[in-house]
Amino acid sequence: MPLFDVYPLYNVTPVSGKGVHVYDDKGIEYLDLYGGHAVISIGHAHPNYVKAIKNQVETLGFYSNAIQNPLQKQLADKLEDLSGCKDYELFLCNSGAEANENALKLASFKTGKKRVIAFEKGFHGRTSAAVAATDNKNIIAPINAQQAVTILPLNDIEAVKTELEKGDVCAVIVEFIQGVGGLDQGTKTFFEEVDKLCKANNTMFIADEVQSGYARSGKFFAYQHYNVTPDVISIAKGMGNGFPIGGILIHPSIESKYGMLGTTFGGNHLACAAGLAVLNTIEDENLIDNVNKIGAYFVEKAKEIPQIKKVKGRGLMLGLEFDFEVGDLRKDLIYNYHMFTGGAANKKLLRILPPLNVKKAHIDQFFEALKKAL
């Protein structure tokens, strides 16, 4: 049976990984500066991660959410400690799209309203409401277009105010650093005013931290660079280091009730074991400090290359903007220099999303290759 052909593929077949490297079926080593869309947070095959999953699958891999699962509470407590999100509650699911879908559903339940405000170049997933809130008409089917969503320009606070005052908006959803869109960010004033306007208009403020969370920005969550209090925070990608897991952190002002949300696989024993291993490693290896140190080093190195017109992003969620489209450059880096990087909706942007334990030597290696490729 052929695979449904929806992915343009590079002619590389990784078969193993270790730390910041992957190895293909020919034994070639690649420097992974993309981590499969920021999923690989603590490195490939981290020994603590491998041990945790191995021990759990040998004990109990799965049972449903109809029974007690203490691993979920352990994960929630550890997440609260490291993130600083005191008193929030955790609902576990399987992916970033599912996290945002549940966040939007919860906002609609809480407010009794249905319209959503999202922003240009935003990406929130491919499920029904999440994809409707994504600024890409090519992936929105007619069945998704039924959703009531208004897409506004980032940083246009008057437009947000006008729409919120109409009284029918259940949620404003925002990436504090846009991922797929190309590392654009709102201003401090904009984000903080949006937060105030949401609270004044009975509207839930949703922080989409699917890509920017889990220390990626240099703080545990990217919204923590600002003085805001999200009602719901969506998480996934780096949360499981490759194991499918997602979730939402829910402000205590939103009351739960049985049947409100649900999932078969979300929060299963293996997913929780993976999630705990990631959090323990972030803490034990001081990875937030490493993100800030290596991120600053990366920015300084980028200044040495005149072809780079702009460095975008924060921490280890970075983009290098050129005055030409980077598709061929990415291919050159893969095939001739054996390095994985990422693209974006901004075709002139090279995205850099390495494991959080990347070292200066790896950054040096990348920039030497980039200079030669350019």
TrEMBL record:
One of its GO terms (molecular function) is transaminase activity. Gene3D superfamilies: Aspartate Aminotransferase, domain 1, Type I PLP-dependent aspartate aminotransferase-like (Major domain). Its cofactor is pyridoxal 5'-phosphate. InterPro entries: Aminotrans_3, Aminotrans_3_PPA_site, Class-III_PLP-dep_AT, PyrdxlP-dep_Trfase, PyrdxlP-dep_Trfase_major, PyrdxlP-dep_Trfase_small. The keyword DNA-binding does not apply. Keywords: Aminotransferase, Pyridoxal phosphate, Transferase. The keyword Transferase applies. It holds the Pfam family Aminotran_3. PANTHER family: ACETYLORNITHINE AMINOTRANSFERASE, MITOCHONDRIAL, AMINOTRANSFERASE CLASS III. Belongs to the class-III pyridoxal-phosphate-dependent aminotransferase family. This is Aminotransferase class III-fold pyridoxal phosphate-dependent enzyme. It comes from Postechiella marina.
